[in-house]
Fold each of these.
Amino acid sequence: MPRSTLRRSLDPIAIAGCAALWALWALWAQPAHAALPAATGITWNVTPQQIADHCKQRIAEATARIKTLDEQPAGAGFGKGLLPIESAVADLSDALAAEAVLGQIAVTKDVRDAATKCSEDLADFGVKVGADPAILAFATTARDEVTATADRALVQRYVEAGRRSGAGLDAAKRKQATALFERLSKVQIAFQRELSEETPTIAITHDEATSLPPSFVATLKAKGSGYVVPVNESTALPFMKNEASSAARKRYRVAYDSRGGPANVKRLAEAVALRDRLAHLLGFKTWADYQLDTKMAKTPARAMALLAQVDEALLPKAREEVAVLAAMKRDGGDKAPMASWDYLYFENQLQKSKYAVDEEAVRRYFPVQKVIAAVFQIYEHLLGVRFEEIKPADAWAPDVLEYSITDVASGKAVGWFYLDLYPRAGKYEHFAMFPLRAGRVLPSGEVQKPVSAIIGNWPLAEPGKPALLTHDDVITFFHEFGHLMHNSLSTAPYETIFGANVRQDFVEAPSQMLENWMWQPSVLKQVSSEVDTGQPLPDELIRKMIEAKHVDDGVRWSRQVFYGTYDMTLHSSGAHVDPTRLWFDLSRKLLVFPAIPGTLPEAGFGHLVGGYDAGYYGYLWSLVYGQDMFSEFAKGGVDSAEVGMRYRKDILEPGGSIEPDVMLHNFLGRDVSYEPFYEYVGIKKLAP
């Protein structure tokens, strides 16, 4: 999944990255439209003209406030300078929550278009504020004034943002940096919109459809003597795992790896060139150096060292895994070489034959409503909260669900969240948590409550029947709900450091830790209920699922290494790197299956423009911390409310007010160990 948050931030890249695999995850709420608000205070039923007018008005008001504050003397420091700036920008965030995200999720295209324009304007505002030398002066002065942990963290973020945004440059260079950041933002938003608005399909014959699950075929549109299959996130796995025709699988894979097309390749190349120019202008050797300057890894060399170490250990295993599947293919009478579009199908056949794990049979144990209810119960127990559905939901689409969060111990309201779980035209294509509004302490002393959403694309239900999930779907939902809790249970007082606004290469760690729950036999029984009988997963099937868990470790993790290496190399190779050539060159070196000739996989790799540029390595990097955190639950029990509340206090509540290494030491009571990570990805003991 894409990652946690990319708040509106004074860092223009947080704004420019508003779009991805974590994607337009800005925090902009409490609009002032004339409509009865829901408990969240966010009004979703807005017209394109209302969006345009409201966005223009609020940005103008915030700009005027910032201009007035800029006139304070540089020595204004924390109380009279930086805090009013934080309040002004956060107020704008709160005013435009709906407008900032509707470009990704609105039902109608005219609303999406208007909201996208608003997002671009917000990005431009963020660029200008980030490059404001007066704000950097306030933050620099404030360094010597503050002592409280949260205050110091806030000041540090503003100093970093100012330095990274060009606020410390002379006027001419600052103007140049601002223009580059603004252009970069527009390119990135356009890249993501291309993916959201595309509706690629392939045609399959009636005969080709016979191997597909009837429940899947029932969701397809008939055409002539066959069907039309949408090529998107919700259909990829069901189709590729079950389609018996190699030719049909190839058509699907080629279409999937061509999403975004030449237009997005051009946008990506432009983004890389803009980033390289910015890096040099801001005093960094490469964009990768620029990005890692404020991450845990600190340098591209450290990140690449981890990727290389994992790849060296796992690529041989990946080749062995594929060799087993190639033998299955030959034994079945197909003498053609094993290809990338064959992998998922034959892996599924291996699961069925060797491990007796039939994914379609497993899906029958995961009806949506049971999974949601059980996941809620687990999080409620571990973290001491209660969720209640709000009916009718006041949301942006008819099938969106809305919930309140209450703290059990105190009985106090914590916040709200939405679930938008099924695909529709023009909607964000992946599965992610979107922080819609941050919690913070208002100038009045009142605590503003956070609002979040999980935006997903689960497979559609067969007409008249409940939607059924794969085990992978369940894991993903549990992971994203972990992000939602991070954004809901933080107690940091400022929006800039609230919730999952932590160092980016740590942000996935909490949710990666939580994925382990979905492999515990007791938890699998809790979240499962056979759709007809109501019985939980049988012990024997659970045993086989766990036994098969590591069957694809080599292929799966070597693919993650490839993505991280491609991203880091792309952003370390100057302004004129060819994104397509680099993808093909590295795929030949790092993957068992190189890229398919004629395709453009990088054109659909949304992470590259959604805040993970020179940051994709963070999925593996943060897994080190996630697996070590899980060791505490392994000792205390995955159902231990005592460990769960320690996790809430030490990891979730601080947000970005405490650096990750300090939070980890507080929770673990020791320094981080790499061993749980090595064990998880199938590597024998190695030196960190």
Amino acid sequence: MLLNVFLSSNDRPRRRNRLALLIVLIVSIVFTLAAFVKVSSIFTSSKSGPQLLSDPFLQLPAPDAVRVVWFTEFAGSSHTVTYGLNRDRTVTATTTQLSRSREDRRSRVGQQTEDGQRYAQTVNRPIWRHEAIVSGLEPGRRLPYRVTSVREDGQRASSEEFSLAPAPVPGTPLKILLTSDHQLMPMVAANLQKVVETVGRVDAVFMAGDLVNIPDRASEWFDDNRGGAFFPCLQGRAHYSIARNGRKTVYRGGQLIQHAPLFPVAGNHEVMGRFSMEMGLNEQFDNAVPRAIAAQFYPSPATQLNPVSDLPLREDWLNNNSFNTDTFNEIFSLPVDRPLGKNYYAVSFGDVRLIVLYATNLWRPSNLTASTRGRYRERQKDLNDPEKWGYGQFIFEPIAQGSEQYQWFVAELSRPEFQQARYKVVMLHHPPHSVGANVVPAYTDPVQIVERAVDGSIQAVRYEYPKSDDYLLRDVMPLLESAGVQLVFYGHSHLWNRFVSPSGIQFLESSNVGNNYGAFLDNKQRSVPAGYRETYVATGDPNGLDPVVPTLAPLKDKTGKVLPYVASNDITVFSILDTGKGAVTSYAFDVRQPTSSVVALDRFELK
């Protein structure tokens, strides 16, 4: 048809010209298609070749060094960091395989967008971690770097170029992001994107726990297909869509931890329950029991599993049948001078001495229905089967006076690194003060009460939490007061609120990223039991402080009353510790108005 149009003329010269034009057109089309095929093949090749599972991120800066960590889904033959102004220095990484990374029917990974589409049961997912110590660095001097992993077949995968630096010296002005409770929540990507847009590159990230939901589910860390996994959000590679007012906005998170070290706390969502390859990961997470209870159950299987009473084998069984933080410990580099195997530590970073406490307990529902294995009671159907009990909201690591962690904390407060620091900061997961839901009951060991009938049968199993035995209030707070701690940062209740003690300690919870349980003031009451031995506080801070109204732009309720908190699934908050100004500023962003500006919500100085 095209040829007939071109040649339909009785004028031979004109026909020859048209034929020449047709030939040129065909040749052009051929070359264009060839170029397209070439570009397409290159693109396809790069996508089908080896890929890094994460961008690199920074850990444990030292005076002349910093650690670079990244992940792949292949063991590889070589993993290196190239760095320096001329990119002329190379260091080789040490590679380890994560021992518990898995997926299951509730994972949202690859093509699985509904339960069980790809994974009918729990399966292992092989993932390798690479860590290189980049040394010979100079304080205050930032250098470019990139990482490269070579697969066994010789194919290479490299990151983009980022920057690194050693630990800052005292006197260096720093901007430190205070964040918590990401858990793949809806506003995390927006929150972190606004951090970068508002303050630029930060110098460190202090993360007060609950990084993901289920710690052994690999996709929650790396590639959950809903677009909001942990590392992508903190590395600017997220793709999380928020729809509000008929408009959909995609947020990418922020390129943060490729340039700044991350200091994490173990929250309750970093703790995995009893290990199983038959049970789903959510069920394993909820199925934790205290170590002492697992030890009671141990003698029965031990006769076959461990007839020679091998101590490491016994410890491994107890770890698998109580709770563990194995994945958290394998992903992150915690200071080597901390007590062996513990999740509490202390580091110096510029003018800041940061003490991280492992203070968290198992979260359980607060309702009292017969079908609930909750914080206040056991399920009715489980009463005669103690192996199915939940044992209330038990504490994972003791912190009461006399415990190993308490004694370590006392020693840390007396060290010159803490005494001489300009800013003394304590970070933990559980709130000492809050108007949120999770500050009740008291942070103490559950007291089990078994109610029996005349014939001895169990009628009920419930748990009490004596407020007078709250370990944070009774034992930890006096240490903070006497040591001159200026800031206590924490999470867990998924909101923003702040308190000031009579001595001037600032207590800040900044964890409002889209899974809000509410704030309980005035007429709004928490779900607490009535008729128990203890009296559980339904409104306000149970530990006696009034929340501070934000100093710059507090939110208001429908009546125009200012609110001393942010408890919202539409407004997200992040906080920045600026050591140069000696102040903490919290910023709010309304995802319902994606083109609006970030608003400075609150600011206070560290005395």
